[in-house]
Design goal:
The protein is of the alpha/beta class. It contains 16 helices and 11 strands. An 11-stranded mixed beta sheet has the order 1-3-2-4-6-5-10-11-9-7-8, with helices on both faces. α11 crosses α14 (336-357). The radius of gyration is 20 Å and the shape is globular.
């Protein structure tokens, strides 16, 4: 059952929230030992929330769009009733007094906060305990490891994550679910662990595009406490998706400068997909625009991480992973002129992309370099996500391919900053177009 169908069934009285949540608890009990998706999970508390949701419905009061539906929360979003430990021993036992804006909005929408999903260390590189549900000897990706794995293993229908580089799109691709990273500034990051104000973005995990749109709409509420947010109309995501397309969308296939890092499965899969799409797509070489993006992104991310985690580095350097320490140490050495130059290119690149995308509905590009790599010591390469995270452009990955080892391969669609509704409408069209073939 999709999250949309579950919410409707609860509203109509066909099922109760308690029945729904109990079914997911059974899935967690059956699979958590092998997958390790949860940093904090309390079945009794989840059922308590579900009981309260059912009593609320019986009282005849108005219901939110996610009333009684369980949602998993990446363990870097503050929750007033659960620990928020950020995947690090340095924050062990941390119990916030307030919810993050995202969690507060989910509660307002009636969602059951099922628990906290595993994150990599401080949402950076060092893996947590989570394994890929399709093959536990392979990584689930990161940093939103637990959120992607929990949705893929049917432990929850929806989950929150974040992306500073590739932390939503990559694990969604590896785990075979829909991952959606909205445009920069559409969802508040207030009381979410900060890496980089210029790059951090909240994202969604779901099993289909409509579910991703449903939960995203509940979160796109202006919050003046996040300096990236702007006062503007909320995108009517579901309305535009359900309206369908008047004419088939036009897309461009962009290999990006990272194309040679992709394996044979990606090369062959996208060649077949582009051929299948025929007149709906054309290939455009954007190397001249994107060739320095990885360098610029790294400068911003590492410098901002050094600033954001300076207290943790001073107090617990020895507890940190070597990877995180190295990032902080490199960031501390960044020259101001290099940082400012890297930041200035964001606006210029978005302007150039807007001009190109004026004639197209979406960019088609790989989500990852291939299937989830074997082993649990790395979360894989984010290189196919980097340009769009740097620009703050909306992106979505769809579980439309499979690699030679039988693991999922995501197809990533990207659109202009702020053009989220058209992006998701195109994603829904592509999904249906392939399913109908």
């Amino acid at each position: 059952m999709s999250a949309s169908a579950a919410a409707e069934a609860i509203r109509e009285g066909n099922i109760t929230s308690q029945e729904l949540v109990q079914a997911y608890i059974q899935q967690i009990n059956a699979h958590e030992e092998q997958i390790g998706a949860w940093a904090h999970f309390d079945a009794d508390y989840a059922m308590q929330q579900a009981k309260e949701a059912d009593l609320h419905r019986k009282s005849g009061q108005s219901l939110g769009a996610l009333h009684g539906v369980p949602v998993g929360i990446k363990d870097i979003f503050d929750t007033k009733d659960m620990p928020t430990e950020d995947g690090t021993e340095l924050h062990k036992g941390r119990t916030p007094a307030y919810d993050s804006t995202c969690v507060s909005l989910l509660r307002q929408a009636g969602a059951v906060i099922m628990g906290k999903t595993v994150t990599t260390e401080m949402a950076v590189l060092s893996p947590g305990k989570t394994r890929n549900p399709h093959n536990p000897s392979h990584t689930p990706g990161g940093s939103s490891s637990g959120s992607a794995a929990a949705v893929a293993a049917n432990m929850i229908p929806l989950a929150l994550g974040t992306q500073t580089n590739g932390s939503v799109i990559r694990p969604a691709s590896y785990c075979g679910v829909v991952g959606y990273k909205p445009s920069y500034g559409l969802i508040s990051r207030y009381r979410v662990l900060q890496q980089s104000l210029k790059l951090d973005q909240v994202g969604i995990f779901a099993r289909d595009v409509r579910d991703a749109a449903l939960i995203a709409e509940q979160l796109m509420d202006y919050d003046e406490r996040d300096p990236a947010m702007q006062t503007r109309m909320h995108p009517r995501l579901l309305e535009i998706i359900e309206g369908g397309v008047l004419v088939p969308p036009r897309m461009i296939f962009v290999k990006t400068p990272a194309w040679q890092e992709a394996d044979a499965d990606v090369h062959e899969g996208f060649a077949e997909l582009v051929d299948f799409l025929g007149d709906h797509i054309e290939e455009i070489d954007l190397t001249h625009l994107l060739e320095d993006v990885v360098k610029w992104h790294k400068i911003l991310m590492e410098t901002d991480i050094a600033k954001s985690f300076q207290r943790e580095y001073a107090q617990g350097e020895g507890v940190m992973s070597p990877e995180l320490r190295s990032m902080i140490e490199r960031g501390n050495k960044t020259l101001a002129v290099d940082y400012n130059e890297a930041a200035e290119h964001i606006k210029a690149l978005n302007t150039a992309m807007d001009e190109i995308m004026h004639e197209y509905d979406a960019i088609l590009t790989p989500a990852t370099t291939g299937e989830a790599p074997a082993g649990l010591d790395s979360t894989g390469s984010p290189v196919f996500c980097t340009p769009w995270s740097y620009c703050g452009m909306p992106s979505v990955t769809l579980p439309l391919m499979q690699g030679s080892n039988g693991l999922p391969l995501g197809v990533q669609l990207v659109s202009s900053r702020g053009d989220d509704a058209r992006l998701l409408r195109t994603a829904e069209w592509l999904t249906q177009h392939i399913e109908a073939s």
